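To whoever is covering the structure queue this week,

Two jobs came back overnight. Logging them here so there's a record in the thread.

Job A:
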Amino acid sequence: MDIVIRPVTAGEHAELGEITAQAYLGDGLLDFGESDSYLGELRDVAKRAAAAEVLVAVEHGALLGGVTFVPGPGPMADIAERGEAEIRMLAVSGAHRGRGAGEALVRACVDRARALGRERMVLSTQRTMHAAHRVYERLGFTRNPARDWNPLPELDDITLVVYELTL
């Protein structure tokens, strides 16, 4: 495996945004499909990169996917509290799945959190993201149902489940 994990470049923002958007759409993760307001957030890599660290997985010059590493509480954090780092918007293109890119991106985030002295790594995921859950569990993340939350309280059927890893 020759997958390299590195910071995204400005020239890759549009491509990574589209990979992320298509991964979420293709997996049926957006309740409102192409009209889902979250789609714009998924595509806006420049916004994420300005407020957090966006990492990409690259192999032989091909962009496989990416992740947003949030070093702690702040504008890109959904649930990170003091002493925690957060993983957001992990996505690997459909054509490149099953080769370890997603796991390599998660490992890079864990390593970055440890280097920053964080106590925990946290993330929110949808109940249906079973492949991602297997990656998180393989890397030692455990469920914390007490922190599950709903990003759209006006819709009572959207609950994100929380995983965490003590570092």
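Job B:
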Amino acid sequence: MQADVRKILTETYQVTEVGDVLCPANQTVKDGSTFTCTVQVAGEGKTVTITVTGEDGRYEVGAPA
């Protein structure tokens, strides 16, 4: 998931200097559930919200905040 989050941030949100992405393990994959990942952007800690959009594991990545 971390590699996918990094790719979405760089390609969709045009974020540069994306470093480590850390998402919590063992999250419930239930439609509508959310959780937060931590990401390093230009050496600064940011968070992104992950929203599960289906029972098959699809999800949306929010913009870094």
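Note for Job B: The CA atoms of residues 23 and 37 lie 4 Å apart.

Please reply-all if you pick these up so we don't duplicate work.
Q.
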